[in-house]
Design brief:
two-stranded antiparallel sheet, MerR_fam, mainly alpha, three-stranded antiparallel β-sheet, Multidrug-efflux Transporter Regulator, Chain: A, Domain 2, 6% strand, DNA-bd_dom_put_sf, DNA-binding transcription factor activity, DNA binding, 12 helices, 61% helix
């Protein structure tokens, strides 16, 4: 009977080569208790396949965002016979796609054509920084588009006249707000749903339950945001439209202001004899405002009195319209 193949053995330099880790990293893992001690033979340390597999497990968990402290707990659970199948299944579920959208490719020529034919290197660099585009290795004239829908929105906005820097700025602002919403949703579900699975290495059964919950709850965040965004857009778009229509109608019907006349104070004992002889009433009325309010408005619109008056009038008109709409809504 022939003996079976000898088990692979490695010096630390060979183990580093096969695992992709550095010698220094391997020693650090040993010091932290993540990697078993090697077999000592004379003056040499000998590593085996178990060490290589463990290094590959650590690398895979690090890529999924686990800290070394968390990895140590998971590996201890593995060594105790509880296995990593359940937790890795949960990790795969969380790391899975949160949208049905498929990534696409686009060449630089196609990109230029969709944005009006301009060759804008600065805009492309901005899109790469934002993750709207990603470079493809060994393909300098093509890009990966993680979200074709997001790129399509940018194309439509640009075609409607929105400058590319304004689109990028809007996306940055929107991303901050959406990440805040996502964080709040995760906090909410962690507190009420997933807290029981955290704080300790879950068993295979617990990890499977948590993975099933992730599958059920994954679409809820987007559905909630979609519904609330639709409600807010309907409410605000209607208010914006009515406000602008009312302003346009008011400007169209407002009588022309009379030419300014010299300021002459009429004697109190000689009032106008008739309405026909009376001077026309002015189209504006003086209102006292706090000095700090006027200064704040001038800081926004400039020192010209006409701009200050127009800004304050528009702000007041919007507030009146908003309160009128709220009052009508309360009555209905």
């Amino acid at each position: 009977m022939r003996p079976g193949p000898a088990a692979a053995e490695y010096r630390i330099e060979d183990l580093a080569h096969h695992s992709g880790a550095t010698v220094r990293t391997i020693r650090a893992y040993q010091d932290r208790g993540l990697l078993p001690k090697p077999e000592r033979r004379g003056r040499a340390n000998v590593y085996g396949e178990d060490h290589l597999n463990r290094l590959r497990q650590i690398a895979g968990l690090l890529e999924r965002g686990y800290t070394l402290a968390s990895i140590k707990e998971l590996l201890e659970a593995w060594d105790a016979g509880r296995g990593l199948g359940g937790i890795l299944g949960l990790v795969a579920e969380v790391d899975g796609p949160w949208s049905d959208e498929k990534a696409a490719r686009i060449t630089r020529a196609e990109l230029n054509e969709r944005f009006g034919g301009a060759h804008d290197d600065e805009a492309v660099a901005e899109a790469l920084e934002l993750g709207v585009l990603e470079r493809l290795p060994d393909t300098p004239d093509a890009f990966l588009v993680p979200s074709p829908q997001e790129l399509a929105v940018a194309v439509e906005l640009h075609a409607a006249g929105v400058p590319l820097p304004a689109i990028s700025g809007h996306l940055r602002e929107l991303r901050i707000q959406v990440e805040h919403i996502a964080g709040r949703f995760l906090d909410f579900t962690t507190e009420h749903v997933f807290g029981q699975y955290l704080g300790h290495p879950p068993s295979d059964e617990e990890a499977a339950e948590a993975a099933a919950l992730v599958r059920r709850l994954r679409p809820l965040a987007q559905q909630t945001v979609d519904a609330e965004l639709a409600r807010a857009m309907r409410t605000l778009a209607t208010r914006y439209l009515r406000s602008h229509l009312d302003e346009t109608a008011a400007e169209a019907t407002e009588p022309a202001a009379p030419a300014p006349a010299p300021a002459v104070e009429a004697p109190a004992e000689h009032p106008p004899r008739s309405r026909a002889a009376a001077a026309p009433a002015p189209a504006v009325e003086a209102v006292r405002l706090p000095r700090r309010t006027v200064h704040a408005v001038r800081a926004l619109v400039g020192p010209e009195p006409e701009r200050t008056e127009a800004f304050i009038a528009a702000a007041a008109e919007r507030e009146v319209q908003a309160r009128t709409m709220d009052a009508l809504a309360d009555r209905s």
